[in-house]
């Protein structure tokens, strides 16, 4: 879709972008990030030739941009900038279909397209006849995005489009835009200096420094394996720590051998197991290790006269988590439900482990005081 | 008073018309030259500042001297008068056009270019309409000055209300001086008001709130 081949940009002797090679797939959301002066904006602006290339080639859908007329090229690529840049002397409608005007669309086509687009961002049709200054910043940038979509370009360049908005508006616009991008399958080149934004939006993040790509990877991969110290520093310690549980699955931190009893165990045996293992509840499994329910000391107390075996008094429909699920979601669910623990099951409902509040406490301890190695030692010790 | 009108009334109308004609011709010429030049200058900002200072220096030459200089080259009459006045109209229009265009929000211009506007489209659709209030302010300023200065045209045989003033000075007749001055002032005021109305008409709807013009 978009290919950079040894792209270089020099400004009187200084190199702004050095030998950049990158291949962006159709429908991919790529965030360029780096400290100011790293060449991210330059790289983006070379794509629609707002900045000329000094060396190398850029191919958009296989066609070299140097061989196309710059003005025509820009009309075929969406462009959104931080300053929003709506034409203050044009109505919202005229602004949205600006590229249509440049491409000499008929009036009907422009009207129809403007209405269609406005629906995408849930703004009422009356807005078409308003002027930009009558809209809030967030609404203005929604229009800015629509304007880029007007001629239905497959590729959209965005230069810190949400940078000038307040955090709340920014957040909702990010969500809205990410959703829109997925629906419409657009390829996005997004320049930002906000790591949170890049992590949130990007399918891939390209970290640049001094005109060179330091690391280009998925957000998860970057958080898990920062290429070097610069990336680590750029991500910041907080994010690296936050990033870790973000990608940790339940499987990685669960205790592997929860204390179970098979169906048919007598209450007397159950109680002795509890006493031996110092626990107050037991998970009940069948012969295939499929989780059936759980019993705890209180229910045994209440029912020991009526019942003989665990099956009769165990509680069913117990809340479980899949071993694939992400830890952050699990923590959230456990805390919200006020559960003491959550059994971990595989795809066939077989019990594979357990996450208890103690496990979470260990994890929190780790996050604050050390790295993951202590956690493993602890879980091993616990076993 | 009535007596004055009886003897000079016809003359007064003709001179007022001449006066208006000279000033408007000069201003029109000024607009036609200075606005495109100002836009052109906005493309070469490094050169523009020097060029505008140079024009500014030229403008400090006393107007009477300019008129006098034009006599050997163009002789006497309306043409040299119009040219000399045109010369004076240039600076305010040129400077305002240049500043107006340069001050247009960079984001808007960049967005336009990024959307695929050619240079010409960017000027016609974005920069000129947005700079218009500032440009018009320059035109108004020039016009008001020019109507005042046009009285000097009489000095080189250009006619206009200046004839009355010079006659009055030569003949020690205050009535004639007043007959030259008052219509010139009224012309200037009317011109200013009409231009302000034109400006209002031309200012794009969406800009009216952000730039209120007096």
UniProtKB/TrEMBL annotation, chain A:
A cellular-component GO term for this protein: plasma membrane
Catalytic reaction(s) noted: a quaternary ammonium(out) + ATP + H2O = a quaternary ammonium(in) + ADP + phosphate + H(+)
Residue ranges annotated for the CBS domain, each copy included: 254-312, 314-375
Location of this chain's protein in the cell: Cell inner membrane
Key words of the record: ATP-binding, CBS domain, Cell inner membrane, Cell membrane, Membrane, Nucleotide-binding, Repeat, Transport
Domain ABC transporter: 2-235
Top-level class of the enzyme under EC nomenclature: translocase
Membrane topology type: Peripheral membrane protein
Residue runs in coiled coils: none
Gene Ontology BP term (one): glycine betaine transport
Molecular function GO labels: ABC-type quaternary ammonium compound transporting activity; ATP binding; ATP hydrolysis activity
SUPFAM superfamilies: CBS-domain pair, P-loop containing nucleoside triphosphate hydrolases
InterPro entries, per database record: AAA+_ATPase, ABC_transporter-like_ATP-bd, ABC_transporter-like_CS, CBS_dom, CBS_dom_sf, Gly-betaine_transp_ATP-bd, P-loop_NTPase
Documented EC number(s): 7.6.2.9
SMART domains (alphabetical): AAA, CBS
NCBIfam families associated with the record: proV
Subunit structure: The complex is probably composed of two ATP-binding proteins, two transmembrane proteins and a solute-binding protein.
Family: Belongs to the ABC transporter superfamily.
Protein name in UniProt: Quaternary amine transport ATP-binding protein
Taxonomic lineage from the root: Bacteria, Bacillati, Bacillota, Bacilli, Bacillales
Automatic annotation (TrEMBL), chain B:
Protein name: ABC transporter permease
A cellular component term, taken from the record's GO annotations: plasma membrane
Signal peptide limits: none
UniProt KW Cell membrane keyword: no
Primary residence: membrane
Domain ABC transmembrane type-1 intervals: 16-195
GO biological process: amino acid transport; glycine betaine transport; transmembrane transport
Locations listed in the record: Cell membrane
Family, as annotated: Belongs to the binding-protein-dependent transport system permease family. CysTW subfamily.
Pfam (any one): BPD_transp_1
Keywords per UniProt: Amino-acid transport, Membrane, Transmembrane, Transmembrane helix, Transport
CDD domains (UniProt xref): TM_PBP2
């Amino acid at each position: 879709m978009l290919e950079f081949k040894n792209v270089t940009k020099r400004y009187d002797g200084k190199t702004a972008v050095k030998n950049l090679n990158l291949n962006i797939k159709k429908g991919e959301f790529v965030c360029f990030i780096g400290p100011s002066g790293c060449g991210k904006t330059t790289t983006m602006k070379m794509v629609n030739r707002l900045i000329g290339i000094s060396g190398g080639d850029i191919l958009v859908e296989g066609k070299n941009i140097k061989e196309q007329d710059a003005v025509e090229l820009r009309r075929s690529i969406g462009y959104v900038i931080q300053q929003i840049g709506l034409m203050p002397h044009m109505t919202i409608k005229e602004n949205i279909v600006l590229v249509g005007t440049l491409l000499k669309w008929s009036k009907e086509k422009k009207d129809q397209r403007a209405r269609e687009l406005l629906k995408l961002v849930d703004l009422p049709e009356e807005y078409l006849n308003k002027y930009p200054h009558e809209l809030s910043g967030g609404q203005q940038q929604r229009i800015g995005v629509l304007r880029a979509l007007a001629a239905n370009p497959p590729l959209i360049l965005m230069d810190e489009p949400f940078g000038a908005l307040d955090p709340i508006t920014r957040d909702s616009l990010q969500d809205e835009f990410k959703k829109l991008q997925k629906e419409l399958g657009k390829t996005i080149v997004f320049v930002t200096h906000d790591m949170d934004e890049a992590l949130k939006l990007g399918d891939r993040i390209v970290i640049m420094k001094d005109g060179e790509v330091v690391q280009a990877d998925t957000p998860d991969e970057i958080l898990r394996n920062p290429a070097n110290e610069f990336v680590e520093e750029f991500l910041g310690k907080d994010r690296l720590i936050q990033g870790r549980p973000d990608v940790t699955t339940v499987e990685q931190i669960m205790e592997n051998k929860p204390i179970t009893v098979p169906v048919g165990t007598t209450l007397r045996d159950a109680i002795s197991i509890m006493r031996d293992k110092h626990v107050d509840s037991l998970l009940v499994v069948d012969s295939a290790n499929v989780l059936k329910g759980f019993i705890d000391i209180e229910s045994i107390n209440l029912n020991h006269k009526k019942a003989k075996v665990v099956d009769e008094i165990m509680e069913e429909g117990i809340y479980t988590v899949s071993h694939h699920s992400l830890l952050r979601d699990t923590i959230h669910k456990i805390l919200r439900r006020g559960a003491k623990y959550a059994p971990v099951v595989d795809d066939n409902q077989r019990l594979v482990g357990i996450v208890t509040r103690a496990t979470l406490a260990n994890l929190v301890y780790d996050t604050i005081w050390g790295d993951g190695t202590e956690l493993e030692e602890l879980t091993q010790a616990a076993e | 008073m009535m007596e004055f009108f009886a003897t000079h009334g016809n003359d007064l109308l003709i001179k007022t018309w001449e006066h208006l004609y000279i000033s408007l011709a000069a201003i029109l010429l000024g607009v036609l030259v200075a606005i495109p030049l100002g836009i052109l200058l906005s493309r070469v900002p490094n050169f523009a500042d020097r060029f505008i200072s140079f024009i500014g220096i030229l403008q400090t030459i006393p107007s009477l001297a300019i008129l006098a200089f034009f006599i050997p080259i163009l002789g006497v009459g309306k043409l040299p008068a119009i040219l000399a006045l045109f010369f004076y109209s240039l600076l305010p229009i040129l400077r305002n056009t240049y500043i107006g265009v340069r001050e247009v929000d960079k984001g808007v211009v960049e967005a336009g270019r990024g959307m695929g506007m050619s240079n010409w489209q960017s000027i016609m659709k974005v920069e000129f309409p947005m700079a218009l209030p500032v440009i018009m302010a320059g035109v108004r300023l020039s016009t008001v000055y020019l109507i005042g200065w046009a009285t000097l045209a009489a000095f080189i045989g250009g006619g206009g209300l200046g004839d009355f003033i010079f006659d009055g000075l030569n003949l020690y007749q205050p009535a004639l001086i007043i007959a030259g001055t008052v219509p010139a002032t009224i012309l200037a005021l009317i011109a200013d008001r009409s231009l302000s109305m034109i400006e209002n008409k031309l200012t794009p709807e969406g800009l009216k709130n952000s730039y209120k013009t007096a």
